[in-house]
Design goal:
DNA polymerase, domain 1; Rossmann fold; 14 helices
């Protein structure tokens, strides 16, 4: 089991997050991806003395560590083992009708990557697990053993944008007939020798995209993002703010399109001569373009290099 200090990490774009969420004393916020609790602490300090923070995380290790880190804030903090896509259920159970803001820091956390035994990275040989919530669901090894070549190729191509997805999938299916793939090093080596030499950018390992795709499939990440965005907007009070940090193009594209759709007064197909949808904008976009980390932050925290922050505010209606 990890201890608290191992969960401490640098929060991405802290100043920009606060500028978007504009927390005020007495307000109620949800941190839908609690992680190391860094963003939560900023929100608690900004909403003092009586603001509340509901912290959600599907990773039980993160929750246990964060409970110690946030303990000084006492009953201003409520932590729950839940996915952010279940925020409506959590708030209903707590008797909270609306919130003033919510933050989502998407993707795998740095401490999950650093925890070699969790199987998220090929830097350490470990069982192919990759589950953010280890209380249930299929592991990466089980998916590699049971999915067809076509299904694996789809996962690698759609979620990892891997150009050699079919070749890699075929090799996996051929290999598992004799020996199941159960460790990170086994998968990394198979991918490395499945990709034609000289066809992969030197700056990344050949297995990077496959590991990303497999992790997304194991955890149903994009499905939860789509559900979570909708539910977050529904839970915001008029004037409430939602900020989302994405780390790869698939997530960011989904967030960008959702925010754009929800901020428009008409979503009819362009070919229609007049509006028939009667769509009412639910949010106002606060970030015309996605915000990026400063050069100084990237130098201090390389993880922030790929981060994109987008935010909206719930309309009064």
């Amino acid at each position: 089991m990890m201890t608290g200090p191992e969960f401490q990490h640098l929060s991405v774009m802290p100043a920009e997050v606060l500028a978007c969420l504009q927390p005020q004393p007495g307000e109620t916020f949800v941190d839908g991806t609690l992680g190391g609790g860094g963003h939560s602490r900023l929100l608690l300090e900004s909403t003092a003395p009586d603001g509340r923070l509901i912290g959600l995380d599907r990773d039980q290790d993160a929750l246990k560590a964060a409970s110690g880190i946030l303990d000084p804030y006492g009953d201003r903090v409520i932590l729950r083992h839940a996915n952010f896509s279940e925020v409506d259920q959590v708030l209903e159970e707590l008797g909270i009708e609306g919130i003033d803001g919510m933050l989502l820091d998407l993707g795998v956390s740095s401490f999950q990557l650093d925890a070699g035994h969790r199987g998220f990275s090929f830097q350490v040989d470990a069982p192919l697990d990759m589950r953010m919530d280890r209380s249930g669901g299929q592991t990466a090894a089980e998916i590699l053993q049971t999915y067809s070549a076509e299904e694996l190729a789809r996962v690698f191509f759609e979620y990892g944008e891997e150009r050699y997805s079919r070749r890699i999938a075929r090799r996996i299916v051929e290999r598992r007939v004799e020996t199941p793939l159960t460790t990170t090093s086994q998968l990394a080596e198979l991918v490395k020798y499945s990709v034609p030499k000289g066809r992969v950018p030197a700056r990344i390992h050949p297995a990077t995209r496959v590991f990303q795709a497999l992790r997304i499939e194991v955890n149903g990440e994009l499905e939860h993002v789509a559900q979570g965005l909708e539910k977050a907007i529904n839970c915001l009070r008029p004037g409430g703010r939602l900020a989302v940090i994405s780390f790869h193009s698939l997530e960011d594209r989904l967030v960008k399109r959702f925010f754009r759709s929800e901020s428009q007064s008409c979503i009819c197909p362009p070919r229609l001569p007049q509006c028939i949808c009667n769509h009412q904008p639910r949010v106002k976009v606060l970030t015309r373009k996605g915000l990026r980390a400063t050069e100084e932050e990237v130098a201090n925290n390389p993880r922030s290099r790929s981060a994109v922050l987008r935010a909206v505010r719930r309309c009064p209606n």
